Amino acid sequence: MRRFGFSAALLMLGGSVVPALAQSSQPTATSAPQTPGVRSGGVSVADTVTVGGYGSVRYETSSLDEPKAAGFDFRRFVLTADATPNDRLQAYIEIEFERLGEIEVERGVERSPSGIAFKEELEGGHGGEIAIEQMWGQFKFGDAFSVRFGQVLVPLGRFNIAHDDDRWDIPRRTLIDRNVPILPVKAAWTELGAGFVGSAGVGKSGQLTYQAYVVNGAVLDFAVEKAVESQVDEPGVSQLASEISLGRGPVNGEGGTRAGAWRLMYSPTLTTEIAVSGYHGKYTPEFLDPLTEHINAFGVDGLWKHGALSIEGEYIHADFGDTDRVVQAFVDTVTGSTGHAPLAGAAGTVAEFAIKNLSPSRHGYWVEGRYHFWPVKWQKNSLGNGFEDPQFTWVLRYERATVKHAIEEVAIEDGGIESADPETLRQERTTIGLSYRPLQSVVFSVALEHNRRLDGDVLLFPFGKISQAYTGLLVGMSFGF
Amino acid sequence: MRASLAILVVLLVAPAPGRAQQETTVYLTIDQASKTLFPGAQVERKDVTSSHEFQEKLKAKLGRVQPTVWESSYTTFTARQDNAVVGYAVVVDEIGKVNPFTLMVSTTPDFRVRDVAVMVYRETRGGEITQKRFLAQYQGKRSSDVLLLNRDIVGITGATLSVNGANRAVHKALSVLELVYQ
Question: Distance from B180 to chain A by nearest Cα, in Å?
Fold first, then answer.
């Protein structure tokens, strides 16, 4: 009560005595809690629009038996725009450019005396991607209740909704949220839908925050891959492969609303957060009807701080129902329920149908401890000079991922159906790192990670490698604005 | 389909907008304000021009801290009870992320923070710093304290820039009051 009165008194006094700068603006006694999913920072480009973003690059080398060459990796650049035409209305968008060097499409027509040729060429970088990570509008009824509509981050666990690279001190995302992933779709996992977000005070110092959405939902989707292959003393081979795997849901209105996602976070004090979350929905596509299998995923995560020390962690369990039925439905669909694979095509051509990375159950966790420090005597050296609050952070992360009865691939080609026996794969990773932040939004980091295969014949990450263990060195830089 | 219906039902029973707006606008008379700020005390206002000389002294006192808004004057208050000073207060501005916010910091007679309140907050995000559980951290702090994130101030995930702004603002407020009244 005293606090309320004091604040109210200040508001009243503020109307008459605030300094010139405050008086020049229209004083509106408003406060806007952090909106879940919206990154802080940015540059104001108009009264109601803020443009921001983040980017990150990494150098990586490892002791893998068959390592990829050590080199630099353009992880991603994300551009954000946040428009708030009114205190209660907000629109937000994040556009991601990931590992993207270029995309170039060329088309042309060439006419000759013997005929005509229509040509189309697509040139692109290796694994490049452009994606809309978020795109939503929000109407705020009050701090405790807002309605959000659009492409939203699925609030399963805490990493997916706080995945911005400049927030983290290790230049690689977590095993269970990105590399394996245990999260049904690798972070950043977004879905198109609608729902509610809000927060409310609980007791003297507690805070309850929630998100709940209905979304189109993750689905087994296909991608068509093309390849041209040379063989010794043989004609070249033209390959076409259709691969089916789990991905984010459609955004064109097809497939219907399939899933729901939610998260409930309680913070009893500023130093502690604990949350539970879930995702539930059908993931089998219409072309496998009448088969219906569901994802049921649950997460528990938390954060605890004490002075310069903070500990953060997440556990996710995801169940995918009866994946044997999914495989059988796929085979039936491809073979017209005959069980006979399509015959081989003309010489020099290969047509493959495959379903990949199925598992009836996955689970995993990560725990990360961070210790922030800065030697006072370094304030005036080249690392500290000119910065108000530079920081070093020691970081230690342990992660473990388990994929039960994993089916790497069921492939149908050249008249045959091939499927490896399912096996349980388990991997752990321990990472120790040191980061330097001249500003909170800029981080230079170095990390040493040790991966170990605990179960199965191959690693989960990088998938398929047969090493028992390997060590990696990562050096990265991330910036936000 | 069932999920879609559930959303529709919750929308229909959602609280009306008018109720939320009542929570963000508060009115008090000056009499009520002064009584609440320092109950039972007489509050005397003093406007202090921030001359070049004053600013230089303030910068020297702040040292490492680099506030981003330098006001042309500071509005300060002295609270007396039975002719004895029971506290001081000052209004300061500081940049949060891209816009300034306005704080009032009140202190005890020995210049320890008694209370901090956000008067005007103009950002679209980072508003958690207006929560009393965050502002309560400053109670008892002095200008000699470091007031830094992850040291003696607990941050808020996603509101780091606003937290840093609040740290700078409180540091500046304490230094201004010490320069004026000590």
Answer: 16
A-chain residue closest to B164, CA distance:
A389
Query: How many Cβ pairs within 8 Å bridge chains A and B?
Result: 229
What are the structure tokens assigned to A456, written together?
């199965």
Cis omega (within 30 of 0) on the bond before A360?
A: no
Selected residue of B22, B25, B36 to mutate for chain A interface (largest A Cβ count, 10 A): B36
Domains and CATH numbers, chain A: 37-106+119-480 (2.40.160.10)
pLDDT for position A43: 62
- Which residue from B119, B126, B131 is facing A14, i.e. has the nearest CB? B119
Domain positions in chain B are: 19-181
Q: Which residues of B touch A33 (CB under 8 A)?
A: 127-128, 131
- Are the C-beta atoms of residues A96 and A116 closer than 8 Å to each other? no
Which residues of A fall within a CB distance of 8 Å from B49?
none
**Average pLDDT in chain A:** 86
Q: What CA–CA distance (Å, rounded) separates A14 from B77?
A: 13
* CB-based contact B66 A388, cutoff 8 Å: yes
CB contact under 8 A, A82 and B4: no
Residue-level pLDDT at A120: 82
Q: Which residue has the higher pLDDT, A446 or A289?
A: A446
Of B26, B36, B102, the CB nearest to A18: B102
Res. B27 pLDDT band, cuts 50 70 90: very low
State the complex-level ipTM: 0.74
Query: Prior bond to A67 cis, omega within 30?
Result: no
Task: Provide the whole-model pTM.
Answer: 0.83
More confident residue, A174 or A344: A174
Q: How far apart are CA A224 and CA A215, in angstroms?
A: 25
CB neighbourhood size of B17 (10 A): 13
Chain A residues closer than 8 Å to B74 by CB: 19
Q: Shortest CA distance to A245 belongs to which of A290, A157, A186? A: A186
Per residue in A128-165, pLDDT (tens digit) is 889 999 999 999 998 899 999 999 999 999 999 999 99
Cis amide prior to A188 (ω within 30 degrees): yes
How far apart are alpha carbons B125 and B52 in whole angstroms?
A: 33
Predicted pLDDT of residue A38: 67
Report how far residue B47's alpha carbon sits from residue B30's, in angstroms, rounded to the nearest whole number.
17
| Residue recorded with tokens 């500046």 | B172
Chain B contact set for A438 (CB, 8 A)? none
Measured between beta carbons, which residues in chain B are less than 8 angstroms from residue A389?
Answer: 148-149, 164
Query: How far is it, in rounded angstroms, from Cα A162 to Cα A148?
Result: 18
The mean-pLDDT minimum among A8-12, A46-50, A198-202 falls in A8-12
What is chain A's length?
A: 481
* Overall residue count recorded for chain B in this entry: 182
Q: Is A236 helix (H, G, I), strand (E, B) or coil?
A: strand
